[in-house]
Amino acid sequence: MQTTVLGKTDIHLSxxxxxxxxxxxxxxxxxxxxxxxxxxxxxxxxxxxxxxxAEAYGNGHSEKVLGKAIGGDRDKVxxxxxxxxxxxxxxxxxxACERSLKNxxxxxxxxxxxxxxxxxFGAKPVPPEETMAALAELKSQGKIRAIGxxxxxxxxLKAICQVGAIESLQPPYSLLWRHVxxxxxxxxxxxxxxxxxxxxxxxxxxxxxxxxxxxxxxGDHRSANRLFQPDVYPSVQTALTALRAMAEKKGISxxxxxxxxxxxxxGVCAIAxxxxxxxxxxxxxxxxxxxxxxxLAELDRISRPVTACIDDNPVLWAW
Length: 319
Fold this sequence. Notes:
- By secondary structure, the chain is an alpha/beta fold.
- It has an eight-stranded parallel barrel with strand order 3-4-5-6-7-8-9-10, surrounded by five helices. A two-stranded antiparallel sheet has the order 1-2.
- A hairpin with a 6-residue loop joins strand 1 and strand 2.
């Protein structure tokens, strides 16, 4: 498994990171804790050393399952978690971190991220200086090793970088969702801010398992994903047909093709979710896929009719 250095730290992250939003169960359907634990162990067995979670994923449930699955192998992995936008006051940040540490059964996080910018989802805005002071305090105590942000615009990222050291940006980024390329990606690459791409398989779309008439079960948040909306979905299906042919020609899965495209970008890791051991094992194998320049150009060509359907709003869901 290839690795990527986290920002300006000496922390090495696996190029494929296992994401555990689904492990929290909330906003997903058909998730089983025992299968989630097996998926985490299979990821470790196949070279994935980095795991991303958040307090908001099932109100700590994802963290608890992840901590249990890792067990006594804490020293072999990197754990990344996040504090939500309603917990950004100084004492709230500290309390949230303590809860996450307890849930995970560890005494430190390798990376602690601000999940959404201050003021998101109706939360009362908090000055970045106050939030960063709390994070710096946690870092000085050894409870976190590095600080990152998620879902920040370039303007927001630049602003908080003026307050303290930020090592990573976690945006939605896939072949079909490329907003980060407009400004943030180049800036991050120039300033040694690692990009942790979430939804690199477009929440399952790029696996090819969703046909033209797919309907999500009640309670599955992906029904609000903008790529599944009627004005975009036909273009997505056309792209998937071409991607399927490409993947078959290379002898890999469509999911592996999608992940390989993301990690081919310098300074970018892909956060890939998995419901079971087979999925996490297959995701890990994407790190071994090499894409030639001509293939990268063809993937770019295939994706453009989809991205042309989407406006400048960087939020992946129509919430």
